[in-house]
Amino acid sequence: xxxxxxxxxxxxxxxxxxxxxxxxxxxxxxxxxxxxxxxxxxxxxxxxxxxxxxxxxxxxxxxxxxxxxxxxxxxxxxxxxxxxxxxxxxxxxxxxxxxxxxxxxxxxxxxxxxxxxxxxxxxxxxxxxxxxxxxxxxxxxxxxxxxxxxxxxxxxxxxxxxxxxxxxxxxxxxxxxxxxxxxxxxxxxxxxxxxxxxxxxxxxxxxxxxxxxxxxxxxxxx
Length: 222
What we know:
This protein is α+β, with helices and mostly antiparallel strands. It contains six helices and ten strands. The protein has an eight-stranded antiparallel beta barrel with strand order 1-6-5-4-3-7-8-10, surrounded by four helices.
């Protein structure tokens, strides 16, 4: 999946205004199973040089990061992901894993990944064994989303953002703390083809400015 990605920090009031405008054009993300959307939990990995962290902090245009992601605290759908970013262009590679495989990774046993032909699985295994890739940060948040089929546009609003104090288990919610901008919301505008003029006008008329935001960076202590 290759797409453009632009991020903003907005207030809850600004979110309500934007949603009222988007609802006239967009379909709500079918994954939103409640008024607040759905819960996303991500365990981020980094190598012994903290390459993902420092590449972002130093403004390197081409960078990559690895994570394991689950939704609504359910063990039935867990993804091992590699995300490559070049300026505003993102490529996300997704490899589904089972809960038992997830636990195996947490315990440092990744030999099962060698059995798969998936480049994502093999790349993760190589980075883990040769570059010291290890869990570094756990982040969870509520995501509300809207879809506009022309240009394959997806607009999401992330709120109630929390990180773990010292745990690395996605399914353990007992060690979470609020992030610095928790009262605000991260809006992400993603599109794979083009950003239609009507969607662009809604964003521009709302007087929001794009920012280089990373939930991973804001939860790391290096």
